[in-house]
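Tutorial handout. Part one gives the primary structure; part two gives the three-dimensional structure as tokens.
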Amino acid sequence: MSTMQANNRIIYNTIVLYAKIVICMAISLYTVPLILKALGQSDYGLFSLIGGIIAMLAFMNGAMTVSTQRYMSVTIGERNNVKLVQVYNLSIGLHVAIGIVVVLLCEALMPLLFRFVLNILPEQQYDARLLFHTMIATMFLQIVIVPFDATINAYEDLTFFSVAGVIEAVLKLILVLALPCFSHNRLVIYAAAITAITLLILIIKYAYCAIRYKNLRLSLAAYGNKSLLAEMASFTGWNTLSSFALMARNQGIAIIFNHFLGTVINAAYGIATQVNGVLGYFSETIKKGINPQLMESEGLKEHQRLVSLTFAMTKYSLLILCFITLPLYIEMPYIISLWIGDAPAYTVEFTRIILILSLLTLASTGLMSAVQSSGKVKWYTIAICAVLLSTIALAYVGLSLGLSPVTILYIACAIEVVAFFVRLWFAHKLNAIPAWDYVRQPVLPVLILATALGLVMYGCTRLAEPSFLRLLITGLLDVVLFLPLAYFILLTKDEQHYFRKLVGKISRRGKRIPQQQS
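Part two.
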């Protein structure tokens, strides 16, 4: 594939994925107040606490997908179909095994969590335990889905991936709309239905892979390659552990909050992480569009292209999230009141800080993929786990000393900055990513531009009282100021060329539609 074809493929994949996320984001945001109203603040907080492990599983699931995709993309680059069949089969077996281990571990820890850690009202205990079992089942299915997601991503067949995502989002919307029809046990019914939807999506993706990729047949003979099995198990295990640290950091904070402050504060934290998860669709879209070719570049030994894609992934992810985040951060109090109404305490503060935390994490997104492409992730994982998990210990000590939960989240942001430099060091060591160039090119310019424009926009909004009109003006300022400056200052000439080409294609396609209809 030529460089021009590869870039065109990235553009196409990005368009397809963004069509998906716009739909999924709208559905997800629409359902939050409906679920909050149907369940109530206490039950919603309980679902966010226990069911939040599924939301946090997106990180763990994503890392395991990257693990399998890394081997598939590198093998595709090597043009080795026999090894490709082996990778496909071994990945399925590995993830079934991982799923079983996770289920057993969670079930074993459940009595300890309920007795010594979680702060749950007595009348909620029965529902909470049923919810926990149901979420474990959903987690198992999410883990088993990973090899099929990775296969679809590795072949860059992202049209189907997007369609499947929309189907899942629509089914969850139907579930939420039907929830008020049940007068009792809404929380358990909701969780059980989520598990059923996840099982349906697993069946659809398995069937698609079986029909679409005839060369990837199921074969027990693949398990005879014990050296490849050991290599994949080691890489998947370490990479999953790294993702687990990120999940444990986020969900660990929720558990610490619950332990000291009860389930209602988990409702505020759950809303904040829901908003962050929706916005995370955008960065994940960039990652899914670029990751297959970044991994394939490692297999083809094209180091310069790997470095270029590493920089591009970080820059585009930060640009998109900054563009969306600026008006949201500034107008957050009004948006929460318009969206949720009577929101739980700390909702605005939590949402704002978690948006900052998300931006800090995105500054490392290209580094994470680069390190994963190398396959040498053992010491990287150990270092990142130590850094991220220190947040939980600091949160416990901080709340014990009487610090506010808002301060705890600021501490998490500070720890994420430390994690950035750890990832940068490993990417430089393992992939020869030029450290200073990475900071100077994709990271600092975007953050400086976003901060400067944010201050200008904030100053403009102080001239009027919060209202829907002011929200529209803030959004307009974001479009008028951020997009042109980002285009002319932050994009290279080649990137500007591809952007103009993309706009031209969309414009020509739009002109042809009316002609065809007439």
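Part three, for discussion. The mean pLDDT is 80. The CA atoms of residues 75 and 83 lie 7 Å apart.
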